[in-house]
Amino acid sequence: MGDSEKILDDLIKALNSAFALKDLGALSYFLRVEVLYPTNGGMFLSQAKYITNLLQKTKMIEAKPISTPMVSGQLVSAHQGENFHDVYLYRSTVGALHYATLTHPEISYSALSHGLWLRCSTNLSIVGFADADWASDHDDRKSTSGYCVYFGNNLVSRGSKKQSIISRSSTEAKYMCLALATELVWIPLLLCDLGITLSQPLVLWCDNLSAVHLSANPILH
């Protein structure tokens, strides 16, 4: 233990020589997890405060506690019952229950089976969107490029970067933005390594017709 403390002290001193550090003492509360240190050694993690706040938020603080993590024999279906009046509250509550499994793994099955439904999607298309705000910087008149790439209905890549040169037209600015968005080309290669083969062509959308014609002209490539 002594050697470990010396190594830790040396590391802190090395970091403090390069960065401004402040010693806050032993960890007590982090990311809604309370850290306790029993007298017999070790570390105890507790989410009692987090769970109490969740019970108050959902108006379940007065509910009768039970020792079993879920009701046996009860099956929940996505096609039965009435819709909850506040879908955002429902989703946040389900997410909060999943976070509570960090210290209460016994509710993992009930939280997963009675709150989260995963939709089976067959949409394997890759679609990208690219745009640029031409000469938006009032100091140097450089444009900023932005793009996002969707795999099916899910955002898997996005980026934004200030262009290094001054574009003389919106067409030039958006043409350079299309070049930045070509990152979507490597996504099918990554999926292929994961055993997913795509048959649909890649699609990249741009709202500037002149930039589209430039990118489609083989003479410019």
Question: What is this structure's SSE topology?
Answer:
Elements (H helix, E strand, L loop, with lengths): L1 H17 L10 E2 L2 E4 L7 E3 L1 H10 L29 H14 L7 H6 L12 E8 L10 E8 L2 E9 L7 H11 L5 H8 L9 E3 L3 H8 L5
Parallel strand pairs: 4-7
Antiparallel strand pairs: 1-2, 2-3, 4-5, 5-6
Helix pairs in contact: 5-7
Description:
The protein has 221 residues and is an alpha+beta fold. The protein has two domains: 72 residues, no CATH class; 95 residues, Ribonuclease H-like superfamily/Ribonuclease H (Nucleotidyltransferase, domain 5). Helix content is 33%, strand content 17%. The protein has seven helices and seven strands, in the order H-E-E-E-H-H-H-E-E-E-H-H-E-H. The strands form two sheets. The protein has a four-stranded mixed sheet, with helices on one face. Strands 1-2-3 form a three-stranded antiparallel sheet. Helix 5 packs across helix 7. The radius of gyration is 27 Å and the shape is extended. The chain starts with a helix and ends in a 5-residue tail after the last helix.
